[in-house]
Write a structure and sequence with these properties.
- Helix content is 35%, strand content 25%.
- The protein has 451 residues and is of the alpha+beta class.
- The strands form six sheets. An eight-stranded antiparallel sheet has the order 13-12-9-10-11-14-21-19.
- Strand 1, helix 1 and strand 2 form a beta-alpha-beta unit.
- The mean pLDDT is 97.
- The protein binds ligand MV4.
- The site of ligand MV4 has 17 residues, from strand 8 and strand 13.
Length: 451
């Protein structure tokens, strides 16, 4: 096992990594920017190293600073968390070249899933169902038109280098295809410096369902069931839950097997997530794979009983997986609400600043993963996630009731948060029925207007 881990991240995930290391008896070294000098993660870790100015580009994204910090402090491994450099294959490679262990997948695992059209091709070859669409990058509007005619409209054009909705354009007819093609290409070029596009049949009102997997360095991969992540706003997840109200034991078995095949096909070793779209007829399709620990991992922990961070660290150290599919006894229902320092009444504008007063919820079936405290000043430079409130109940209804109760206890002064927005979702009739899809938020707004 490692003796000292560099935590190459900030905020709640840095805290989560430090907690896992502490339980494993591993020392931790936090890195922090000048904007995070008073943050929780450097205080909670055994040691801390300042790695530069507040802007992420000058600190949390500076590979040389991170490697120096690991070397001067005598670390033997680096945990990247999520975001920042977590899915950067070059970073993972440089960590290994420096003689450190990257607590994550191999550089090859990351690259194979980083290019989304290449990932699809790999999945098709592994017999994982993929969304019907072009077999390779499209070369011209003409080719796009021919392909769109063959799949029938509507179609989506997506950036090969993309993911998360950037460089994506919908076309409902030939005319939209032409403008969409040009716009998607320009957007992809600007966002990724890579304008390659592929085309897919558009799935109407799908659910976003993802399978948590973990693989070890001995060729074993298991899945830990699904998370329903359909409640999103502008491609940002707001609420996740496990199990999905749309997945029964039979579908779980099929999606789980597909996710394990996907991971096994690339020799995946670490915690990872295989994302699927589930259409209204119950068919599922591979969308992309996230080669990192995710924000929403706690709901899987709550229903499976496993500590995914500790398992991820153990497999990175070369230990064999002890999780066995036949020993996983999922129990109850868990929901996560992502609380952001944003004003839902001002188009979710970030609200950095001092938290003058704070009360975080607790009590039965409530977990809060957070780095905030009273008098903490939320810096304006980073993601606005300030807390994840996670509820657990015997049933989905109990998990909803506990979440509502917890959010009513969540109290801050000095900043606006997205808590009131979450309470609206929890009171929505379609949410309560479990009728979720990726267009849920705009439709909820319509329902509220109609009332
Ligand atoms: C789709 C789709 C419908 N059909 N692909 C959005 C982000 C990127 N990961 C892929 N996305 C989608 N791809 C086909 N062929 C609908 C979406 C989509 C979506 C997916 C997951 C969660 C929220 C979403 C919101 C809008 C669109």
């Amino acid at each position: 096992m490692f003796s000292k881990v560099l935590v190459a991240n900030r905020g709640e995930i840095a805290v989560r990594i430090i907690r896992a290391c502490r339980e494993l008896g591993i020392e931790t070294v936090a890195v922090y920017s000048q904007g995070d000098a008073d943050a929780l993660h450097p205080r909670l870790a055994d040691e801390s190293v300042c790695i530069g100015p507040a802007q992420s580009a000058d600190s949390y994204l500076k590979v040389t600073h991170l490697i120096s910090a690991a070397e001067v402090s005598g670390c033997d491994a680096v945990h990247p968390g999520y975001g920042f450099l977590a899915e950067n294959a070059d970073f993972a490679g440089m960590i290994e070249e420096a003689g450190l262990t990257f607590i994550g997948p191999t550089p090859d695992n990351i690259s194979k899933m980083g290019n989304k059209s290449l990932a699809k091709e790999t999945m098709r070859a592994a017999n994982v169902p993929v969304i019907p669409g072009s077999k390779k990058d499209i070369e011209s509007v003409d080719e796009a038109r021919k392909l769109a005619d063959s799949y029938a409209y509507p179609v989506l054009m997506k950036a090969a280098a993309g993911g998360g909705g950037k460089g994506m354009r919908l076309a409902r007819d030939r005319k939209e295809l032409e403008t969409g093609y040009k716009m998607a290409k320009a957007e992809a070029k600007a966002a990724f410096g890579d304008d390659r596009l592929y085309l897919e049949k558009y799935i109407e009102k799908p659910r976003h369902i993802e399978i948590q997997i973990i693989g070890d360095k001995h060729g074993k991969v298991v899945h830990l069931g699904e998370r329903e992540c359909s409640i999103q706003r502008r491609h940002q997840k707001l609420i996740e839950e496990s199990p999905s109200p749309a997945v029964n034991a039979e579908l779980r078995k099929k999606m789980g097997a597909a996710a394990v095949s996907a991971a096994a096909a690339i020799g995946y070793q670490s915690a990872g997530t295989v994302e699927f779209l589930l259409d209204q007829s119950g068919k599922f399709y591979f969308m992309e794979m996230n080669t990192r620990i995710q924000v929403e991992h706690p709901v899987t922990e709550m229903v499976s009983g496993y500590d995914l961070l500790k398992e991820q660290i153990r497999v990175a150290a070369g230990e064999k997986l002890t999780i066995r599919r036949d020993l996983i006894k999922p129990s109850g229902h868990s929901i996560e609400c992502r609380i952001n320092a944003e004003d839902p009444d001002q188009d979710f504008m970030p609200t950095p600043g001092r938290i003058a007063f704070l009360h975080l919820p607790g009590g039965p079936g409530v977990r809060v993963d957070s780095h905030i405290f009273a008098d903490y000043v939320i810096p304006p430079y980073y993601d606005s996630l300030i807390a994840k409130v996670i509820s657990w109940g015997q049933t989905r209804t109990e998990a909803i009731v506990r979440m509502r109760r917890a959010l009513e206890e969540f109290y801050t002064e000095g900043i606006k948060t997205t808590v009131p927005f979450h309470l609206r979702v929890l009171d929505d009739s379609e949410f309560i029925k479990g009728n979720l899809h990726t267009g849920f938020i705009p439709e909820m707004a319509e329902r509220e207007k109609a009332k």
